[in-house]
From TrEMBL:
Gene Ontology BP term (one): peptidoglycan biosynthetic process
Annotated source species: Rhodoferax lacus
PROSITE patterns, per the entry: ASP_GLU_RACEMASE_1
Protein name per its UniProtKB record: Glutamate racemase
Binding site for substrate: D13, S14, Y45, G46, N78, T79, T192, H193
UniProt keyword terms in alphabetical order: Cell shape, Cell wall biogenesis/degradation, Isomerase, Peptidoglycan synthesis
Family under the similarity heading: Belongs to the aspartate/glutamate racemases family.
Length: 279
């Protein structure tokens, strides 16, 4: 295995939501090493202005490159992707940088009623990147856009009561879900945090409504870019052991215990995150 192949992949989000993307990455690339930063000292990004998100994204990318020599960067946050991915790619042109966007394209392609619900942060829905994505799908489907103020924060804090109340309020405000003409048969989860409320959302919108999130497409694109760069980490020899595969490393810029708790609750990982000061 070459030194380039052995370098880790950096993954970051404003908090614990990006763990849903990390989960997909680990399923797609079980041999890879990951370093995850939860910027929960500045969460949620969806309720911050673009300039703030831009500064935080660059500070985290700089940390990944300087301290871990990453071979790829995954921006596991819709808001940060919209605000910062173009400038990140300009600063690090040789580094594969993979972003995430709400799954509007597959939703439009697969919806039978032609009506798609989209739950996202207000910052994502107001971004130029989202506007361009929406415009590119003009005439392909009708999109019902729902800003979900406070939902990412409730999930971040594992506030189940508030999460359920907000999910109920927002899905009810969107209108009717179902298979009949004019009803939404697809719901796009446009924030990585929302994946952790998927079971509750599914029960509210009905079992026939398709829920789409972005983790799996990001994982597949990450694999493609690593293969193209010849930096995909090789699997151990058949019959060998996996001791050479280091566990993921986790950092938090805020409440470390929130990240530790989320890792155990949603990824079933017992780990102790390291406090990180990037101010």
């Amino acid at each position: 295995m070459s030194a380039a192949q052995d370098r880790p992949i950096g993954v970051f989000d404003s908090g614990v939501g990006g763990l849903s993307v990390l989960r997909a990455l680990q399923a797609e690339l079980p041999q890879e090493r990951f370093v995850y930063v939860a910027d929960n000292g500045h969460a949620p990004y969806g309720e911050r202005d673009d300039a703030h998100v831009l500064r935080r994204s660059h500070a985290i990318a700089d940390f990944f490159v300087a301290s871990h020599g990453i071979k790829a960067l995954v921006v596991a946050c819709n808001t940060a992707t919209a605000a910062a991915i173009h400038t990140l790619r300009a600063v690090y042109p040789m580094l594969p940088i993979i972003g995430i966007e709400p799954a509007l394209k597959p939703a439009a392609a697969n919806s039978q009623t032609g009506v798609v619900g989209v739950m996202a942060t207000r910052a994502t829905l107001n971004s130029e990147k989202f506007a361009r994505l929406l415009e590119s799908l003009h005439g392909k489907a009708t999109f019902v856009l729902q800003p979900c103020d406070g939902l990412a924060d409730a999930i971040e804090r594992s506030d189940t009561t508030r999460t359920l109340a907000l999910c109920s309020d927002f899905t009810r405000a969107m209108g009717r879900f179902g298979q009949a003409p004019g009803e939404m048969d697809t719901l796009v989860l446009g924030c990585t945090h929302y994946a952790f409320a998927a079971p509750e959302l599914q029960s509210m919108v009905g079992g026939q409504t398709v829920l789409l999130e972005g983790g799996a497409p990001v994982a597949r694109q990450t694999r493609r870019l690593l293969e193209a760069a010849h930096t995909l980490r090789g699997l151990p020899e058949p019959g060998g052991n996996r001791q050479d595969v280091a566990p993921a490393q986790f950092y938090s810029t805020g409440n470390v215990r929130l990240l530790d708790s989320a890792l155990q609750r949603w990824l079933h990982i017992r780990a102790s995150a390291t406090a990180l000061d990037l101010n």
